[in-house]
Amino acid sequence: MTTPIINVLFVCLGNICRSPTGEGVFRELVEKEGLADRFRIDSAGTAAFHIGEPPDGRSQTAAMRRGIDLSNQRARRVRDEDFRRFDYILAMDVENHTNLMAVCPPGEEGRVRLLLDFAEGAEGESVPDPYYSRGNGFEVVLDLIELATIGLLDDIRTNHF
Ligand code: 4NP
């Protein structure tokens, strides 16, 4: 029997802070669980400002403190084909969720989800944009994403494996 590959795309505005963190944290989690070969994981942005750039240095530093290397990632924009290729298209905030739904091809809306709907106790909420934050915004991003990706993997195990 062939085992299914689950395709997971993390999406934020710029694809330099939150969604690269989502990609890195989830990749680390599935590797730790011995499930790396069951997943294709990527990230993208709804805006074009930072295409081709590596993740924000503050995101890289915060992730590296938790043993997660984001340095090889490069920003790209969400493409039409993503709505066919990815089983889970995970918006970091409500605004990006709304914008993804607005461009989602008819019939594919079920793929587009709010990431924090998988975070116990934070359902319906947004991962705050840390770009202009001066405090611990990048740590908050990591904490929320770690919580949500545990719930996400539980959901995938229940529904796909
Ligand atoms: P991200 O953060 O959506 O988490 O990558 C942002 C990055 C850049 C900008 C806004 C948010 N910006 O305005 O350039």
Q: Keyphrases for this structure?
A:
four-stranded parallel sheet; 39% helix; 161 residues; 13% strand; alpha/beta; 5 helices; binds 4-nitrophenyl phosphate; Rossmann fold; globular; 4 strands
Polypeptide structure, described:
The protein is of the alpha/beta class and 161 residues long. It has one domain (6-156): Rossmann fold (3-Layer(aba) Sandwich). Helix content is 39%, strand content 13%. The chain has helices at 18-32, 57-65, 82-85, 94-103, 137-160, and strands spanning 6-12, 39-45, 88-91, 112-114. It has a 4-stranded parallel sheet. α1 (18-32) packs across α5 (137-160). It is globular and about 45 Å long. Bound molecules: 4-nitrophenyl phosphate. The site of 4-nitrophenyl phosphate has 10 residues, from loops.
